[in-house]
Amino acid sequence: MTARENILKKLRTSLEGTTPRPDDFNVELVTKPWSYGDTQGKIKQLRTMMESVRTEIHQTTKASWVALFADLLKQKQVNNLLYAPTTEWGKQIDNYWQQNTDLPTLKLYDRLVDEWKNELFFEIESSITSTLGGIAATGSLIVWPNREEPRLMSLVPPIHFAILEASKIVDNFYDAQQKLNWVENTPTNALLISGPSKTADIEQVLAYGAHGPKELIVLILVDV
Amino acid sequence: MSNQDQHRIPVFDALSQHFKENAHQALGNQQLRHNMRSAMDSLMTKRLASMSDEYEREHLRELGNHIRARALSKLPDLLEKLEANLTKQGVQVHWAETTDQANQIILEIAQRRQAKHFIKGKSMVSEELNMNHYLQHHGIEALESDMGEYIIQLDHERPSHIIVPAIHKSAKQVGHLFENKLHTQYTDDVDTLIQTGRKILRQKFFEADIGISGVNFAVAETGSLFLVENEGNGRMSTTVPPVHIAITGIEKVVENLRDTVALVSLLTRSALGQAITTYVNLISSPRKADELDGPEEVHLVLLDNGRTQAFADAQLRQTLNCIRCGACMNHCPVYTRIGGQAYGTVYPGPIGKIISPHLMGLDKTEDLPIASTLCGACGEVCPVKIPIPELLRRLREEDVRPPEETPHTVKGQGARFSRKERLMWKVWKTLNTKPALYRNFSLLATRFRALTPNIMAWSQNHSKAKPAKHTLHELARKHLGEQ
Asked: Which residues of B325-353 are buried (b: 16+ CB within 10 A; e: fewer)?
C-alpha cells in the first residue's frame, strides 16, 4: 500500500461509526462586529488600520491622482517606476509623463521574470499596481496578480504604490470573498497586503522593510 | 570564553529525556528569564487588547473550535478533495507517513531539478523533518529566511517559539552574533540588524533553486494554500524560485474558504495581537502559461508523522485542532520561565506537551505531560478551545499505564510506569476502603508521627508533612461529646 492509501485507511478506520459534524458557520459573527457603515466609514476604518502600521495614505480623485503621484515620486527621489501600461491607471500615467518632464523612468514588466531578474531585484526602485479593493476591518488591500501586474511587482521594489478605488472597499474579509465570488473565480495567487513588510523578531522591536517593500503608499480614489 | 560565547543562550540537549536538566539550566539563566518574561508579558497584553470584546472573542473561539472539529470529522474526504482540486490546478500532491519519506520526496524533487540552494519561509513541519540537516547531508544548502529563524540558524540553535523563534535572544546578543558570524560592525540597533539580514537574504532569494514554505490552512473547497506572514519572506520563498514546495501536516485542511475568515482572525490576534498579518498569501496554482512570474512547479507534501495516532482517539484528536498560534506558550508559567529550547522538541510549551508524544512517542517525551502546573491558562486562551489541561491529564494516565496493557493508544505508553508506585496506590486504596484497617492505620500514624519518613522530593523544599496528633474521627468525637 502507498503512503496515501495507508494514511487515508487509518483515518477512515478511526471515523467508522461516526457522522460528520454539521456546518454551523455563523456569518453574523464574522461580519456584524466588522461593519463600518457607508464608504466614508469604511475609508476611515481602513485608514486607521493601515496608518497604524506605517502605510502612507492619500485621498485623491480620478482627475488629480496622477499629478499627486508624480509629486510623491519626486519627493521620494526615485529614479524609476515599474508600471503596467495596459491598465486604466497605466494609460493615465503614460499621458501625464508625455506632457511633463523630470519624472522617473518608466519600466515595464513585459518579459518573463527570469529574463530581467537582476534588474528587477537590484535596480527597480518603485512600482505601482491596481487593487481589486480593500478590507476596512483589517486595513488590507486585495491584490490578485495577473499577466499585466505579475506577483513580484508588489513585492520586490522597495516602494510600492497601490491604487484603491473607494467604492471597492468592503467591510470585512467575508464580504470580500462574497463580492469577488472568490470560490468560483479562484485566482492563481491572491494576496491581502496590510502594510509595508515588517518584523518584530528581534526583542519584539518593530522594524519595517524586512524583505518586501519598505514603504507602502496607497492612493484612495474617492470619486470612483 | 570568546566574545560570542559570552552573549550566547546555551543550546540545550535536543533530547527531551533531559527535560529536567534543561529546565534547571534554564532557570539559572537570568538573561534568558529576563528576555522570556518581557516578551511573554508583551504578547499577552497585545492579544488581550486585540480581543477586548469578550462576547466576540468567546463566540469566535467557539466557532473556531467547530470549524476545526468539522474538518477533522471528515478529514479523509477533505484531503481527497484538496488533492483533486490542487492536482486539477497543476499542483503536485505527495503523501508521507514518516519524516524520512517526506525528506526523500523533497530530495527527489531537488535532484530532478539539480537544485543546490533552498530558501525557506517559516515552517514548523520542516523542523519536524530536520530537513535542513538532511539536505545539507546531501550537498544542498537550506537557508532560513524568516529573520528569527535566520538568527537561530546562524547560532546553530532550534526555534524557541513557533511564532517568534528567536524570542529568547536580546538585540545585544543578535548584534554580537552578526558581528561574529557575518563580520559586520557591532550594533544593537534593530533597524540596522534587520537591514543587514534583508541585504544578505535578498541575494539568497535571487539565487535559490527551490523555495520551501509551510501552510497555515489548506482549503479543500478551492484547492488553495493559505499562508500568513509579516516579513514577505513567505511570499519571496513561494514566488521567486522556479520551484515551490509546501509542507504541512495532514490535519491543516479546512473545508471551505469562508472558514478561513474566522480562523485567520483567531490566529493573528492570538499570536501577536495583530488584526491581520502584513501578507496573506493564497496559492492555488503554479505559474500559468500566460503569466510572467511565480514558480513553474508547486508541490504539496502532506505529512502524517504520528498524527493518525492522535486522530484515532476521539479525546486526543482534539490536539489536531491546533492552528499554531503559540498563545498557549505565551500564557504558560512553565514555558515563560524556561523558554522553548528546554523542551527539546520541535513544538515547545503546552501544545508541544500534547502533540510531541504522538510525533515522537511517550517513551521519548515522558516528562512533558508532567511539566505543567495544570493552571489552565493554556486552555483558557486557546483560540480553538483545545482542552489542553484535560489532554495533559490523559497523557499522564497513558504515561503510567502498564506498557503491555491494551488498547495501546499512544506509542511508548507506560514510559513512567512503576510497579512500586502502583503497589503503593493499591495499599493506599485498601487502607481507605476497609474501615477497620483505616482506623488502625490512622491510630498508628498519629501516635507514631515522630517516625514519619521524608517523602521524596517534597521534603527537600517543604516542611515535613506529619500526621496530626489525633485523627479527624477522634477530634470529631471529642467535639460532639463536649457539646
From this structure: bbbbbbbbebbbbbbbbbbbbbbbbbbbb
